[in-house]
Specification:
With 283 residues, the protein is of the alpha/beta class. Helix 3 packs parallel to helix 4. The relative contact order is 0.15.
């Protein structure tokens, strides 16, 4: 079993990370990908790898990173070049999380067009870094309330990539929550994987097509993750999430697909090997 998206270097794990990793080992978690979202997190993610042999690293700049302030062109270029150098680390297995996030926690404030523009520039730069390094891309997408707008924009960006782009690798749609219509679009693209976390174990909202969407996505395109310490699955909802709980995500997918747990675990593990080939080359 593999947790393809975690934040083990998060402050939530200070004090008992050894025990967290031990619990993951106890339920046969083979690998955990800890994900960077800004320059400091990228540094801490690599340090986490150096402590635990199961851990692999993805480095990236989250779309929220580009919302933090007004960016000057030279400063933005510097941050991208710093990430490009981090991506050359021999233990990095992916780029991200990166992407587009148009959701505002304050209903009186919207993500501005300027913020969307700089998010897009940062996203495109990281797509290029992934291609340069021959690495998969981990995408964070969150639309504005009641829409699929960020998913639609991510789809258009990915669709515009040349099909024969040199070194093109897998794209992982992290914590996927797209609807039926946008999912059909993503399924038309090659090399796309849909990664699910603990929120698929929650009761779907009334009128949601979430369960129908999960059934539509082929098992060959699915991955499992925790996004820990966030989004703990049932029966741990409300608690700090951790890699051992990825088993509940796999169990939920198995029920949706009417497969045995063992069959589902093996299939998702095979998908992870296809999506993250470098993960299994590291010794």
């Amino acid at each position: 079993m593999i947790d393809v998206h975690a934040h083990l270097h998060d402050e939530a794990f200070i004090g008992d990370l050894d025990a967290v990793v031990d619990r993951a080992r106890a339920v046969r978690i083979e690998n955990i990908v800890t994900i960077g979202t800004d320059p400091e997190e990228n540094r801490r993610a690599i340090a986490c790898y150096e402590t635990y042999p199961e851990v692999r690293v993805s480095v990236g700049l989250h779309p929220h990173f580009f919302n933090e302030r007004e960016w000057q062109a030279e400063d933005l270029k510097l941050r991208i070049e710093e990430l490009r150098e981090r991506a050359k680390h021999p233990k990095v297995v992916a780029i991200g999380e990166c992407g587009l996030d148009y959701f505002s926690h304050d209903p009186t404030v919207s993500i501005t067009d300027d913020q969307k523009k700089i998010q897009r520039e940062g996203f495109l730069a990281q797509i290029s870094i992934a291609a340069e390094q021959g690495l998969p891309l981990i995408i964070h997408t969150r639309p504005s309330a009641g829409t699929m707008d960020a998913y639609e924009d991510v789809f258009l960006i990915l669709k515009a990539r040349p099909a024969d782009e040199e070194n093109r690798k897998a794209v992982i749609l992290h914590c996927y929550m797209g609807d039926l219509a946008v999912t059909e679009k993503f399924l038309s693209l090659p090399d796309i994987f849909f990664s699910f976390t603990g929120n698929i174990t929650y009761k779907a909202k009334d009128g949601s097509d979430r369960d129908a969407t999960l059934r539509m996505i082929p098992i060959e395109r699915m991955l499992s993750e925790t996004d820990c310490p966030y989004l703990a699955p049932v029966p741990y909802r409300g608690k700090r999430n951790e890699p051992a709980y990825v088993a509940e995500v796999v169990r939920c997918i198995a029920e949706m697909k009417q497969m045995t747990y063992t069959e589902t675990e093996e299939r998702i593990g095979s998908n992870a090997r296809a999506a993250f080939p470098r993960m299994f080359e590291i010794v």
